[in-house]
Structures are given as structure tokens and as C-alpha cells.
From TrEMBL, chain A:
Residue ranges of every copy of the Periplasmic binding protein domain listed in the record: 31-276
Originating species: Microvirga splendida
Locations listed in the record: Cell envelope
Coiled-coil regions, chain positions: none
Pfam families: Peripla_BP_4
Protein name stated in the entry: ABC transporter substrate-binding protein
Superkingdom classification of source: Bacteria
Protein family according to the UniProt entry: Belongs to the bacterial solute-binding protein 2 family.
The entry's keywords: Signal
Signal peptide: 1-24
From TrEMBL, chain B:
Protein name: ABC transporter permease
UniProt xrefs under Pfam families: BPD_transp_2
Keyword terms of this UniProt record: Cell membrane, Membrane, Transmembrane, Transmembrane helix
Record keyword RNA-binding present: no
Membrane topology term: Multi-pass membrane protein
Organism from which the protein derives: Microvirga splendida
Positions of transmembrane segments: 20-42, 54-73, 79-97, 104-126, 132-150, 162-184, 219-239, 251-271, 278-299, 305-330
UniProt-annotated location(s): Cell membrane
Highest taxon of the lineage: Bacteria
């Protein structure tokens, strides 16, 4: 039962807190101000961070900001007061960090930004930023499709939330490939709000608008969840997802691997939830012999296809 | 009570005309941007076409609007329906994924819905907290509660029976449409063939004089909020079954606003009193027909909300008492 899970988690958290206090002297302590739990990916990122910290014998204190910057600033201040060895921030917004980061700098506590960067004039305020390149993700997805179809394909696009930076960038990257391939065309594009329900609804209308789906060669979704919704819409229209209409998406959440294993999706580009791993490595190297890491550590955008889907699903299902 | 009875003033448009006309106009516009809008075919034993999409996608908001109409008729409001959808969906999906039989999962979801309604009803009727604030509590806390059930993940399940609620069909119509029709019928029978409908309108018109007149205002109000939450739970089951997974972060998100909009477009006043269930359902269909039309038209998604706002404004203007009076004056002069 989920409820029992919850109790064990609380119990474990209590244990970890008490043991953390006992070992505080011998272990390195890192405070992590997490955005919140707005998506499955975010929950996975938190979980992976804990695992990566444990691997390296680091005591990780996680603070949930519930999508509010003021909570994050408060968390950072309390980490400074506790005298942690380093602070990780997954910033909810990109501005307004200068003064609190200055406080951390004055306390000589290095700060690492995870999965999103910030806008600041003084980039000595943070040690490094570990993020993915969302434009590149869109480009990789487009390149796979261009290669697969010989550069000839009518694509319908399911955009993320209008105005959000991953939606803008994943569209930009894909559009670069479309511009380079005259045979490739985006025939319809609409927002599916990054959700399964909207992805399904928008795909239903695309299929009807394009002659029952006959004109559509592939669907490109800005995240896996919309692709999973689209797969159901394609099936309900009596077509075969993955064959009649190819399914291309980004994120690499477990359920898309399940769909790929069933032959219903073709490819996904990974947005790794492991931002903390590279951050810990950079931090440990910095602490050991003062080695300055680059200002931007870009995570890998790996392409996954059905061949490895079953194995990847098994690997990931417990993280999400 | 008298204000309730002598309500149909002369010179107003026939009741329901603005709504029906608006729906037909939206359909017409949809047909203009997409000529196959009315085309229907059979696919796997169910009707398939854009018109069916409007009905199918509009069903959850239509069901929400049924409960919301009654709440608004008592001069209340229920902001928590979207969160209740998420809770009910998460409950049913979690139980199904754990291997519980379908009836247990559905009963648990309905039970959770009724409990949410009881909570809202007690806050509003017994503790006399303003409905807006009272239901805001559950709107915020409820989604967190749903996220606790799902642990922030999308819980997927394998159950053909449960999935059929969202994507199955009955008499060639999508199951969601049939459920909405049955809910409309039940709600209509209960409020119009008993005194309950009259009590609800009386509470909305004047709660104190209703109580003096012997109406059990507290019991009726609690019952209305419970019915509203039950409707929300059913809508939550439909959207969960539709994607075969419970997405606590997004299920029913902002749908309370669509439901309120449907009720208002349907001509029910936010100040309570007279209400119309059928017109609220038509209101929900107008909203969905616009959504579907925008998707079919191929306009960039940045325009979606603007188009929606303009159409809603037009429908509300058609019902505006001031504009109706102006029209009457102009006609007299002419």
C-alpha cells in the first residue's frame, strides 16, 4: 500500500536525521533546496540525489520549497546557519538570487545549481551549474526522425505549456532539423500542456484534421507524457502507434519504455534525473584540491530506442 | 420565494436561446474552419468524429457543472472540484494497481468524494464559513492529498474494466457521454420531481427566510455539496480511466473554473436562486466545442485563451440584463 510506503519513508527520514546528527563531524554535509514535487521527473531527481549522496558517503539534507522562491531563500539561509559544506539549489525562477548567494559566498560555502541556471552579473556567486541543454534535446529527437524517414516526414507537434522554457527550446531544436530537411514539415502544432490528458485530446483532433491520420508520418511530443496520451488517441482511431504514426518524445520516463517495449513508441531522448551525481563529483574535486569546475556542466542527452526498452524500464521503474 | 416565481420578466429572450444559439454558432464556425466537423464514422463499434470528441471531452466538465449548478443555486461555490477529481482518480488508480477489484476501487473513489463533500458542507452550512474560503481549503490541500497517494508519480494500472469508463462505448456513444447523460437525468429527476429543487432555489434566494419557512437549510446545503463532490469524483474517474493512469499533479487542474464558467454561461446567477441543469451542460459543451474548434483550426496555441475569452464574453453579453433593457428601449423607439 502507498500509505505504508509513506510511513516507512517518514520513519527512514527520521532515522536519517538522527544518524546524520551523530555523524555530522566525520561526513560531508550538503544542503539541497529542491523546487517541490510538481512532476514525476522532479520526484525522481530527489530520489536519485539521495542515492548518489549515499554512494559517496555524503549527508544530504533536502528542503522542499513547494515551488516558491522565498522558501528556497529561507532554506539556503538556514543551510548557511547550520554551516553545511555545500549548497545545491534547483532554482524555481532564474532571477533574484544575488543577495542570498552573496551571503553563502561570504560564509565560504560553495553553491551548485541543478537542472536550471540563473541570471546574475556575478558568476563567481556559484561554483557551477549542472543542467541539460533542452534545445539540443529537440535537435537530437529531430535528427533521429530525419534519419529514420530519410528526411521526408509530415510531423504533428505536441508542444509543452505555452511560454515555458523547455517547450520553447525543444521546439527550437527540432525546428533547426526541420529547416535543414526540405522534405520534413510540421503540419500541425498545438499545446498539450505537458499532460497525458491534453496530449490525447490534441492528438485526437490532429488525426481528424489530417484525413483520419493518413497524412501524418510522425508525432513529436515535447515530453513523454503527452506522447503516451497521443499513443492512446492513435490506437482509438484504429491506427498503429509506432508503425502507422511514429512516436518521438523527450524525457525518458519509465512508462515510455513500456510503450517502446510494446512497439508503440519509437524513440525518446533522455533528460536525466541524475543532476546531483555530476554535481557531487565536481564538488568533491573542488574540495580535495581546489579544482575549479567549468561554469556549465552539460548532462548527456542520450537517445533510447525499443531495442533496449525492456532493460531500461526495469532499471528505472523504482526511481519514478 | 415570490422573487423566484415571478422571475420570467417580459421582453427577455426565451430562456436558453442565447446558449443554444451560441452552441450552434460555435459548431458553425468549427464547420467553417474544418469541413469534416460533422462527419461521423464507425470505428471499433463506436461513433468516431469531431462532434463525438466535443461530447466526449466535454463530459467531465458537464458532470462537474451539474453539481456546481446546485451549489451555485444555494448562493455557494465549490472551488475544490478539481482537487476532488484528483483525489478520487488517485484513490481508484492506486487500489486498482494494488489488485483490488473494480467495484471496490469505484466505491472507494465515490466514498472519498462524498467525504470531501461532507467536509465542505459542514464548513459552509454548520460553521457558516464563506463558501469561497471554505472550499479553497480543500482545493489547495486536496491536490496535496492526491499527491501523497500517488507519491508525485503517475500511477498507471492495467484494468480493461476501469479503462472502459474513460474510453469504452455504450450504444455506440463514448462511455463518458453516457455517464454524463445518466447523471443529468438523475440530478434532474431528484431536484425537479421532489421539492428539493425548490428548497435549493429558496436557500439561494434567502437562506434565513427559508429556514423560518421550515426548510432544513443545513441538511439541504450539506447534501448539495456532497452531490457536487460526488459529481467531481465521477469526473475524476473518467479522466483517470481515459489515460489509464492517475496524474495527481494535473488531473482536474483549473477545471473548477471551467465548471463555474459553464454554469454561468448556462444562465445561473452566482447570487443563487433559479438554476438550469440542462443549460449548464450546454455551457460545458460550448466551452469544449471552442476548445475542439481551436485544435482543428490550426491556429497557434498562443491564441487559444483569447478566442475562448471573446466567445464567453459574447454569450454573457447576450444574457446581460442591462443590454436586454437597452435592446427593449431601442425596439420601442423603432
Amino acid at each position: 500500500m502507498k500509505a505504508r510506503h509513506l510511513l516507512t519513508t517518514i520513519g527512514m527520514a527520521a532515522l536519517m536525521l538522527s544518524s546524520g546528527a551523530a555523524y555530522a563531524q566525520s561526513k560531508m554535509t550538503v544542503g539541497f533546496s529542491q523546487v517541490g514535487s510538481e512532476s514525476g521527473w522532479r520526484a525522481a531527481e530527489t530520489k536519485v540525489s539521495k542515492i548518489e549522496a549515499e554512494k559517496r558517503g555524503i549527508d544530504l539534507k533536502i528542503s522542499d520549497a513547494q515551488q516558491k522562491q522565498e522558501n528556497q531563500i529561507r532554506a539556503v539561509r538556514s543551510f548557511i546557519a547550520q554551516g553545511v559544506d555545500a549548497i545545491f539549489i534547483a532554482p524555481v525562477v532564474s532571477t533574484g538570487w544575488d543577495s542570498v548567494l552573496k551571503e553563502a559566498k561570504d560564509a565560504k560555502i560553495p553553491v551548485v545549481l541543478l537542472d536550471r541556471s540563473i541570471e546574475t552579473k556575478d558568476d563567481s556567486l556559484y561554483l557551477t551549474a549542472v543542467t541539460s541543454d533542452t534545445v539540443y534535446e529537440g535537435k537530437v529527437a529531430g535528427e533521429w526522425l530525419a534519419k529514420e524517414t530519410g528526411g521526408k516526414c509530415n510531423v504533428v507537434e505536441l508542444q509543452g505549456t505555452v511560454g515555458s522554457s523547455p517547450a520553447i527550446n525543444r521546439k527550437k531544436g527540432f525546428d533547426q532539423v526541420v529547416a535543414a530537411n526540405p522534405g520534413m514539415k510540421i503540419i500541425r502544432t498545438q499545446s498539450g500542456d505537458f499532460t497525458r490528458t491534453k496530449g490525447k485530446e490534441v492528438m485526437e483532433s490532429f488525426i481528424k484534421a489530417e484525413g483520419g491520420g493518413k497524412n501524418i508520418c510522425a508525432v513529436y511530443a515535447h515530453n513523454d507524457d503527452m506522447a503516451i496520451g497521443a499513443i492512446q488517441a492513435i490506437k482509438e482511431a484504429g491506427l498503429k502507434p509506432g508503425k502507422d504514426i511514429k512516436v518521438v518524445s523527450i524525457d525518458a520516463v519509465p512508462d515510455i519504455f513500456k510503450a517502446m517495449a510494446d512497439g508503440e513508441a519509437n524513440v525518446t531522448v533522455e533528460l536525466t534525473p541524475n543532476m546531483a551525481g555530476p554535481a557531487f563529483d565536481a564538488l568533491l574535486a573542488f574540495k580535495k584540491d581546489g579544482k575549479q569546475p567549468p561554469k556549465w556542466i552539460q548532462t548527456e542527452s542520450k537517445v533510447y530506442t525499443p531495442e533496449t526498452a525492456q532493460a531500461e524500464y526495469e532499471k528505472r521503474k523504482d526511481l519514478y | 420565494m415570490s422573487s423566484v416565481i415571478q422571475a420570467s420578466a417580459p421582453r427577455t429572450l426565451p430562456k436558453g436561446l442565447p446558449q443554444v444559439a451560441a452552441l450552434l454558432i460555435v459548431f458553425l464556425v468549427n464547420w467553417l474552419v474544418f469541413r469534416d466537423f460533422f462527419a461521423l464514422r464507425l470505428q471499433d463499434g463506436r461513433l468516431f468524429g469531431s462532434l463525438i470528441d466535443v461530447l466526449n471531452r466535454g463530459a467531465p466538465v458537464a458532470i462537474l457543472a451539474l453539481g456546481m449548478t446546485l451549489v451555485i443555486a444555494t448562493r455557494g461555490i465549490d472551488l475544490s472540484v478539481g482537487a476532488v477529481m484528483a483525489i478520487a482518480g488517485a484513490t481508484a488508480a492506486a487500489l486498482t494497481a494494488e489488485g483490488y477489484p473494480l467495484p471496490v476501487a469505484l466505491a472507494a473513489a465515490a466514498g472519498v468524494g462524498l467525504a470531501c463533500g461532507l467536509w465542505n458542507g459542514i464548513l459552509v452550512a454548520v460553521l457558516e464559513i464563506q463558501p469561497f474560503v471554505a472550499t479553497l481549503i480543500l482545493m489547495v490541500a486536496g491536490r496535496g492529498f492526491a499527491q501523497l497517494i500517488t507519491e508525485g508519480q503517475i500511477i498507471t494500472f492495467v484494468s480493461d474494466g476501469f479503462a472502459a469508463i474513460g474510453s469504452g462505448s455504450f450504444l455506440m456513444l463514448p462511455m463518458a457521454v453516457m455517464i454524463a447523460l445518466v447523471m443529468l437525468l438523475i440530478t434532474h429527476l431528484v431536484v425537479r420531481y421532489t421539492a428539493l429543487g425548490l428548497f435549493i432555489e429558496a436557500i439561494g434566494a434567502n437562506v434565513r427566510s427559508s429556514a423560518y419557512a421550515g426548510v432544513g437549510t443545513k441538511a439541504v446545503t450539506i447534501a448539495v455539496y456532497m452531490w457536487c463532490s460526488l459529481c467531481a469524483a465521477i469526473a475524476g474517474l473518467i479522466v483517470t480511466a481515459d489515460i489509464r493512469g492517475a496524474d495527481a499533479n494535473n488531473a482536474g487542474l483549473w477545471l473548477e473554473l471551467d465548471a463555474i464558467l459553464a454554469v454561468v454561461v448556462g444562465g445561473t446567477s452566482l447570487f443563487g436562486g433559479r438554476f438550469s441543469l440542462v443549460l449548464a451542460v450546454i455551457g460545458a459543451l460550448i466551452i469544449q466545442a471552442m476548445n475542439t474548434g481551436i485544435l482543428l483550426s490550426g491556429y497557434p496555441p498562443e491564441y487559444n485563451l483569447i478566442v475562448k475569452a471573446i466567445v464567453v464574453l459574447a454569450v454573457l453579453l447576450a444574457q446581460s440584463p442591462v443590454l436586454t433593457a437597452v435592446r427593449a428601449v431601442l425596439r420601442r423607439k423603432a
